[in-house]
Amino acid sequence: MANPINEKEQSVQASVNLDTTPVLYTDNINMTINPDGVVLDVMQRLGPTNQVRIVSRIGMSRDHAKKFVEKLGKLLLKSEGEIVTGKKIVN
Predict the structure, then answer these.
(1) pLDDT the model gives residue 65
(2) Can you tell me the distance from the alpha carbon of 39 to that of 58, in angstroms, rounded to the nearest whole number?
């Protein structure tokens, strides 16, 4: 008998090399979607010009994009409480 799928997320440990993985600031995002998935072109404006430089391209399935939007929305709502009260909200 197959075990039912556990929908709870398991914690994942992630490591990052801060020397080779910088945080790239974005002030523009172009989103493209088709039946197969979504592509995000993350961009930076080049000084006072009307030009932008793509600093990262992120592709994902439509299902993953929906999960991303849901999680980002929850994170933004949660952080609003921190901004308003100045206190960190603990799960």
Answers:
(1) 97
(2) 6
Q: Tell how far CA 21 is from the center of its chain.
A: 16
Q: Which residue has the tokens 């910088």?
A: 22
Q: What is the secondary structure of 25-48 as a DSSP string?
A: P-SEEEEEEETTEEEEEEEEE-TT
Please tell me the pTM assigned to this model. 0.67
Quote the tokens at residue 68: 């991303």
CB atoms within 10 A of CB 16: 8
State phi, psi for 75 to the nearest 5 degrees.
-65, -40
CA angle 89–12–37, rounded 5-degree value: 95
